[in-house]
Each structure stands twice: as C-alpha cells, then as structure tokens.
Design goal:
23% of the residues lie in helices and 24% in strands. It has 252 residues and is of the alpha/beta class. It has one domain. It has a six-stranded mixed beta sheet, with helices on both faces. Strands 9-10-11-13-12 form a five-stranded parallel beta sheet, covered by helices on one side. The longest helix is centred in the middle third of the chain and has 10 residues.
Length: 252
Amino acid sequence: MNGIILYRGPSVIDGEPIVCIATGLETGGSNSKTGHMVQVYILRADMNPLKASQIGADHSICAGCRHRGKVVTDPKTGERKNVGRSCYVMLWRGPHVVWDAFSRGVYVDVPLPKARKLLARRKVRLGAYGDPAAVPFRIWEQVLDLVSELSGYTHLWREYPMLSAFCMASCDSEQDRVEAKALGFRTFRVRGKDDPKLAGEGHCPASKEMGKATQCAQCLLCGGARSSAKADITIIAHGAGASNYERAKEAA
C-alpha cells in the first residue's frame, strides 16, 4: 500500500469534488528537494490537474493563490488557457502521475483511525500540490496526530488561521508577512531574485540560493507552530514558473 486516500468529498473552498491522497508510504516518497517524506496531494477528483489548471477549476484546491496564473479565452478559437502561471509545481509530473493512478483505482480509501496509524512516526509533507485548507480541518487533526515531523504551507491563512498548527503562511510580500504573524503564523515568503530577506527570516536551506545544503526531510523548519523553530523562512521564486513571477513583479 504505497498510497491511501485521506479524504474525498467537497472542497472546503468551493464545494467542488476533490481528493486528498498520501503517497510514498512504502517507497518513502521523494524528490530532490524534499528527500524521503510522505507526499500529500490535493487534487480535483473529476479531472486531471493539467485540465483543471487550464480552465481555472484548480480554484477548488488552490483558491486565489497568485501563482495559479490567469485563465484567458482565445478570441479566435474560444479555447481557455492558463497564462502566467508562477507555481513551482510541475503539473505533468507528480500531480498528473498521482491523479492518473487515482483514476485507475490504485489508491484505497481508509478510515481515519487507520490513516492515523499508517502515518504515525513518519515525516509528512502537506500539499505536495494543493492547499491544505481545501480539506476539512478535522481530517488533519486526526491523521496528523501521530506523525513525527511535517512540513506544510497555506495561502489561505487569513481565512483559516487554525492551520497555523500545521502550516506555514505562504506569503508573497512584506505586508502579507506582517498580517500572517499577527494571526499567529510562522511564514514562508517567496521573493524576487533581487529582494533581500527581512529581519527574523532565514533562507530555505534546501534552496538553490543556499546551494541545496540539505533536504526538507532533514531540515524540517516548515512545520508551522508544530516545529520548534522560531525563525520564518524565505526563498527566491523558483521552478518552472520563476520567470513568470519576475515578469509579474516588474509589471506590478
């Protein structure tokens, strides 16, 4: 059993069908930045993530995150497409692979008490794709109760401050950080390549700018209030959408 379904049902964000899947229970899910951690994906249940992004249906799992890009309609063909996406997640990789396996019935639904036991003493990464806020908070309260360590991020910190228990507030400006800290969050701020870090922030040790000194599985600074760390974290915009981030910043 390498993957389990933690939740399937309406999105907390907009009521549309989503599924929350934990992968890597047997193989120790991994990528070059995170290292071996159980990877949790939050996806639309009724369409693959590439299509969801192209038509804006990813709102159900990412809400108003600025890194989603903008959906526009081609005036000639009437086709809808996404432009300016700056999210670091490559949809055709992990999210599409997981959704394809889900659509083929590879993953099994498990009762929450069993999921709690399966995740016990493991390192867990919330939101390998998708915002944890899309999943009912009661799910996280139960399934994360016994995990050894975790990392998690939410752009919906204003709406769901209770997520500070598990998540960093994903911030895109200095003002975001000020507001998130007032709500009790530790913060993870994306910044432009020429922007400095702020007082009280530390660089992400797993980032390119820090020479990828370690992996998330060893660092574990991004566990929200659950972590013993006090500093906030910042990282230069990275991944496939970094150039779009810089262009949007210049145009602002």
